Amino acid sequence: MQTEPARAGRNTDSAAVLRAIRDRRSIGKCTEEIPDPEIIRQVLEAGTWAPNHHLTEPWRFVVLSGDARVGLGGAMGAAAVREAANAEVGETARSRAVGKPLRAPYVIAVYADPDPSAPEIEEIASAAAAAQNMLLAAHALGLAAMWRSGTLIYSPEVRRYLKLPERAVMLGVLYVGYPAMEPPQRERRPMDDVAAWWDSAPE
Ligand SMILES: Cc1cc2nc3c(=O)[nH]c(=O)nc-3n(C[C@H](O)[C@H](O)[C@H](O)COP(=O)(O)O)c2cc1C
């Protein structure tokens, strides 16, 4: 039987882990300061420790900085024009879209490259867990991070720009930098509203 001290020893950092999970917030405004690539590597490394049922490690990341973000903006702008009802609306949407990737010094595209032998949902779930690992790592390292998505990010133009394989499932982009705002206050509904406990079979 496991003793109390051994349990406590195994979970020495549990308070820090739980606090990081609780305190992490999406932070959408970054300073101009560019994080050292080594810090970004730590974030990516955390992503690769996500659970994966079929040991396929289906998560993929494309790390964009500098002018690579401008290229992403161009692809998002082209998608905005295609989606628009007319040229005038398209031009407004394009000029808004092109600047979006410049909101942070690093934009990390996250997608799943599902192994055909595995249920696709599980491969996508693994890649999403990788994204959450990265958000938590960024938080722990003092970075601002925000997961963003939307039709422009899912568009064929962006997929082409990022050279995604046909079977890839785009999960979104993580904007990463140093925070230029206080973390927003967020609420969650009480855990008991979403958790059911069963200790015998239902009628
Ligand atoms: C799959 C996914 C996509 C998201 N896309 C966007 C987005 O496009 N724009 C945005 O403002 N927030 C986006 N978010 C972040 C949510 O807005 C954020 O998680 C939510 O407001 C709760 O805030 P918190 O992360 O600080 O708890 C996304 C989150 C997830 C998980």
Structure description:
Helix 3 (37-47) packs antiparallel against helix 6 and helix 4 packs antiparallel against helix 5 (87-98). The chain starts with a helix and ends in a 9-residue tail after the last helix. The protein has helices at 4-10, 14-23, 37-47, 67-83, 87-98, 120-140, 151-154, 156-161, 191-194, and strands at 59-64, 106-112, 144-148, 169-177. The chain is globular, with a radius of gyration of 20 Å. The protein has one domain: NADH Oxidase (3-Layer(aba) Sandwich). The chain has 203 residues and is an alpha+beta fold. The longest helix is centred in the middle third of the chain and has 21 residues, at 120-140. A 4-stranded antiparallel sheet has the order 1-2-4-3. 31% of the residues are buried. Helices cover 45% and strands 13% of the residues.
